[in-house]
Specification:
This protein is mainly alpha-helical. It has 35 helices and two strands. Among the domains are: 201 residues, Alpha Horseshoe (Serine Threonine Protein Phosphatase 5, Tetratricopeptide repeat); 96 residues, Alpha Horseshoe (Serine Threonine Protein Phosphatase 5, Tetratricopeptide repeat), CATH 1.25.40; 63 residues, no CATH class. 38% of the residues are buried.
Length: 750
């Protein structure tokens, strides 16, 4: 067997020890087999899956990176495209354009083609169509060993793709004449994707090959294995199996083990018959070997009872598989895109994956759980929530090797640029006692992934405080504040100061230190609605006396238009802040301070009520039925006019402060639901990929929607009612929608 044949049979860089392919949730040593791979006969393991190893090392495809090859002069267009992808390696359209340009002008330069494919597939290892194109380029120049190497890297990069295994098996059939080599590759493939609902194309090719070899016992065994699993076209497979059983002798269909079992059963039956009849000459006939021809005749017969029993065993497997198929068919038919693409999935399909995972987890078959998660993470590779769910699921089942493997793949390959996964990794590592790993995750966020992310700063400082490192916790804030000071008009800086001040007071209970931080902030930041709101809230948690004389001019400067000072707050934000301050004074101020604030509010905002709004309120009052008014109970008291009725532009409760508006990273935007269903013929999806199943360059990368901050109630103060202004008669009470229940002001981080 040549070197390339050995690689096909045993796998690329198969250095891992042989493990069992059947997974038991109680045996962690066996868990590696499902991800790292083994065939039913062993020796087929691979050391990594989906482009990553299980140990925490940077992951790249073999040969990846921007290495300059000999004779690789670039055209101006190639230079332009390379500069784009070097600046942003996730720019999918630029990558596909670069591949097309390279193939167009350098079709015979295999070095340049290898360079661009290696670099692209290091970033997008799940694009099985491009692995196929890469292998075709190597085959075109006659480098068969390189073709095998590419396919082996492909089945590591997208292990749970039926298509890439099918392409690999077709290549092996067309290249090698050794049936054992080809069968070994088929067996490796069905270990990973043989239970995939859409695995019919692979099984069909396996059946076709064994039919060409006329190895009927192997063919019958393949049908038996298929009938054990709820896959597509199960009825067709059962009918084909029955046709095979009815047209070939059972002696050709039975495996060696089955033939031995039949022979043993036949011996036992004859022995029992001999003892019951008590015939003396029976022993003689057996000694003379006269019974041997009858055994052979039985083994090669097509006795209807034997045939019925043989088919019945498989039919029982088929019925059981069909029962399970009836439970999952709804989930499977809702999966319209089982392959990877950078385009976002629609919301319905994302929810379907969650529901499908819920069902399989409740079913309790650990093997099925792992396989479904791996299928899901092909289609949903760009969504951190599914990686987080996988890690938590494996951790709760005690399979820490699979949990670590999934977390490494997520943080180093598939969602490595999304802060959410690194925040999760930091929390998980802290929980597992890996404090150095948690700090490394936070440092990666601060330095590369999302510098200045408020949530990362807060959670990092909180972790250091939990560990008893108070000085380190303060240092986290101070370092980020120092960086933000150097930026012009930093949006994050006022929020950092406000949070740092509050954190200092809650940890040290030092009100003077906390106020000192706020005073320093006023020298470096332009006051905003959110900053002032946080400052007002901060005064509520400090011990008396409240610094109302200090707050009032700050609030007035922000809510009062002044051409001499830069005021970026909108009219709505200024009005909301005024109402927040009035409510604060209602709790902690005196009569004079309340009167001053309310008079100022009326002067600034009440004259700007729109006439159309006042006319509408008057019309609503006029149209109110006198009969309806008289029908009310005599002792019913008209509800007090809320301040939001006096000032219609104001919300009923204080709007959320800065903690409710953390900096958010881009989330994949859901695509609109497609009217047509996903074509169940998984093997026919090539049209969506082009000639090789690749992705057209015209597809745009997913655009992240702008996060919409959720308003949180200013939970420290219950909504207060104020009398309406006396400039107009009160309208009949208008029914207001139920106010949202108060939420903790800083509930996101504590």
């Amino acid at each position: 067997m040549g070197e390339s044949q050995a690689m096909v049979a045993e796998g690329y860089n198969a250095s891992a020890a042989t493990v069992e392919s059947n997974i038991d949730s109680s045996q962690s040593v066996a868990n590696v087999s499902l991800v790292n791979g083994t065939g039913p006969e062993g020796g087929l393991t691979t050391s990594a899956e989906n482009g990553t190893a299980t140990d925490n090392v940077p992951v790249t495809a073999p040969g990846a990176g921007h290495v300059e090859y000999a004779g690789s002069a670039l055209s101006p267009e190639e230079e332009r495209l390379w500069s784009i992808v070097r600046a942003n390696s996730s720019e999918f359209n630029a990558w596909t354009a670069l591949i097309e340009e390279t193939e167009r002008i350098s079709q015979d330069n295999i070095s340049k083609i290898r360079k661009v494919y290696d670099a692209f597939l290091a970033e997008f290892p799940l694009c099985y169509g491009y692995w196929k194109k890469y292998a075709d380029h190597e085959a075109r120049v006659g480098a068969m060993d390189k073709v095998v190497e590419v396919y082996e890297r492909a089945v590591q990069g997208v292990t749970y793709s039926v298509d890439i295994w099918l392409h690999y098996c077709v290549f092996a059939i067309n290249t090698y004449g050794d049936p054992d080599t080809i069968r070994s590759l088929f067996e490796r493939a069905v270990v990973y994707v043989g239970t995939d609902f859409l695995s019919s194309p692979l099984w069909d090719k396996y059946i076709e090959y064994e039919h060409m070899q006329q190895d009927w016992s192997r063919l019958a065994m393949i049908y038996t294995r298929i009938l054990e699993n709820p896959i597509q076209n199960l009825d067709r497979y059962f009918n084909n199996f029955k046709e095979l059983a009815e047209t070939r002798p059972l002696s050709e269909l039975r495996s060696a083990e089955e033939s031995a079992t039949v022979a043993v059963a036949s011996d036992a039956s004859e022995t029992a018959l001999s003892e019951s009849d008590g015939k003396a000459d029976e022993g003689k006939s057996q000694a003379d070997g006269t019974s041997e021809p009858s055994k052979l005749e039985s083994a090669g017969s097509t006795d209807p009872e034997e045939l019925k029993k043989y088919i019945g065993i498989r039919e029982a497997l088929y019925i059981k598989a069909k029962e399970f198929e009836s439970k999952i068919i709804g989930f499977e038919m809702a999966i319209r895109r089982p392959y990877f693409h950078v385009r976002p999935l629609n919301v319905a399909e994302l929810e379907n994956w969650h529901n499908y995972l819920d069902f399989i987890e409740n079913d309790g078959d650990f093997n099925k759980v792992v396989k479904l998660y791996e299928r899901c993470l092909v289609a949903c590779a760009n969504y951190p929530e599914y990686w987080i769910r996988y890690v938590l699921s494996m951790g709760s089942s005690g399979s820490m090797d699979l949990a670590d493997n999934a977390l490494t793949r997520a943080t180093q390959v598939f969602v490595k640029k999304q802060p959410e996964i690194h925040l999760f990794a930091a929390r998980l590592k802290e929980q597992n006692g890996d404090i150095a790993g948690a700090r490394a995750a936070f440092q990666l966020l601060h330095s590369e992934i999302s510098p200045g992310l408020l949530e990362a700063v807060i959670k990092h400082a909180n972790m250091e405080q939990r560990l008893g490192n108070v000085d380190d916790a303060f240092s986290v804030y101070e370092q980020v504040i120092a960086v933000e000071k150097g930026k012009e008009n930093s949006i994050l800086l006022p929020l950092l100061y406000a949070q740092y001040s509050r954190f200092s007071y809650l940890v040290l209970r030092d009100a003077e230190k906390a106020r000192k931080i706020i005073v320093e902030a006023l020298d470096h930041v332009q006051p905003s609605k959110h900053f002032m709101e946080a400052l007002i809230f901060f005064e509520t948690i400090l011990p008396p006396p409240r610094k109302i004389e200090y707050l009032d001019p700050l609030v007035e400067n922000l809510i009062k238009p002044n051409v001499d000072t830069q005021n970026t707050a909108s009219s709505t934000e200024r009005e909301e802040l005024s109402l927040i301050y009035i409510e604060f004074l209602g709790l902690f101020g005196d009569v004079e301070s309340i009167k001053k604030a309310e008079d100022r509010h009326c002067k600034l905002f009440l004259p700007h009520r729109s006439r159309s709004e006042l006319k509408k309120r008057s019309a609503d009052e006029f149209l109110s039925s006198d009969r309806t008014k008289l029908a009310k109970p005599y002792n019913e008291t008209a509800p007090a006019q809320p301040v939001s009725n006096a000032y219609p532009n104001a919300p009923a409760q204080w709007s959320g402060g800065y903690a409710a508006q953390p900096q958010a990273w881009p989330q994949p935007q859901a695509a609109p639901a497609q009217p047509q269903q996903w074509n169940p013929a998984y093997g026919q999806q090539q049209a969506a990929y082009g000639a090789y199943g690749g992705y057209p360059a015209g597809y745009a990368a997913p655009q992240a929607p702008t996060p919409v901050p959720q308003a949180a109630a200013y939970g420290a103060y219950p909504p207060q009612a104020y009398p309406a202004a006396a400039t107009a008669p009160l309208a009949a009470p208008v029914q207001q929608p139920a106010a949202a229940p108060p939420q903790a002001y800083y509930n996101t981080y504590y």
